[in-house]
Design a protein that fits this description.
Distance between the termini: 13 Å
Strand order of the largest sheet: 1-2
Order of helices and strands: HHHHHHEEHHHHHHHH
Number of helices: 14
Structural class: mainly alpha
Shape: globular
Number of domains: 1
Oligomer: single chain
Strand content: under 5%
Largest sheet: 2 strands, antiparallel
Radius of gyration: 23 Å
Helix content: 55-70%
Amino acid sequence: MVDVLLLVGLAVAVFVGFNIGGSSTGVAFGPAVGSHTVSKLGAATLMSAFFLVGGWTVGRNVIATMGGKIVPSEEFTLVASVGVLFFVGLALLISNLFGVPASTSMTAVGAIAGLGVATGTLRESVMFQIVSAWLLAPVIAFWICAVIGRYLYPYLDAWFRLEQSEGPLIEFSRVGSLPYPTVSATATPKQLVVNGLVVGIGCYMAFSAGASNVANAVAPLVGAGAIGESSGVLLAAGATAIGAFTIARRTLDTVGNDLTDLPLLAALIVEVVSASIITFLSELGIPASLAVSATMCIVGLGWGRATRTVRISDAAAAAVKGPDESEERSEMSVGAIAAEPENEVARIGEEDPDVLSASDLFNPSTTARVVGLWIITPSISALASFLLFEYVPL
């Protein structure tokens, strides 16, 4: 019976890792694939390698938290571990049905918390730290990118002018039957630097995904003592690699081809800020959602860019005096960062609102649905887990 449960637990862990690989690869390497810097095969290879590095190093801290600090590790019997992983897989299924990427970290913590409440072993101080991080991380992500969007983004865009390349920068020549990489004859030094930056940031994003997500697949089994920590990391990384080489091709198509509304520079800023926040939290052993932070980075960057149509002093004066003719000038567009920049960057308050409203970066109603589902899925996971372990004799 134990062997059967262990096999079921391992199968569910592989399923979770498989789905993580499918969704995270597109987030990490969508800009690189969309800009023709790397192929889908190259993206899957890099994702697999750097996910493993992130999980093997920083990810162990998150495994320790989820496998024995939220509730004592003794509570993770093999049956309980399978139950927790089942709810994580269920959340992935529900989110996929709604077309929204699940926050696997939040859902997994919710299931573990339900187990702790049912058994009376939940460590409230640890949960308080985790929930506080969940509330603060999106706020910090929003304001960092809002500041960048308002004060730095136009200058960065004018200076760097990151554009998607028309073709591959690396070509393969042959000596006899042996291929070797060479730089394309049409590639410029700037293109090489820019595309190297795109790939490097994608690898950093993959590292961050491994640091935060490896625990979601195997922490309960590690806490139960069913598998060792190192074996768990290898299992999660292997399952993620399978997802990266298979179902991630569709997410790479989606993310890579939808970069028209999210310029390459904006995508890289979002990746750096969100990955840095999640890597920092993972180092502290706090499981957090990369998808939530990335979404709030996008919102903050677009909002900050749009606020350049009005100075703070003008907004304060308008608030005191009430609405007037300047109100039309101070309208904000969330699509601001998709606008084409001028050769010279206009000062704050001198931006043309018609230019900044060229296209919408995101749909507010869709964003509300996504954020709402991120709140609902961990809540459902926690409630279902509590009911299972409270009323079903396991």
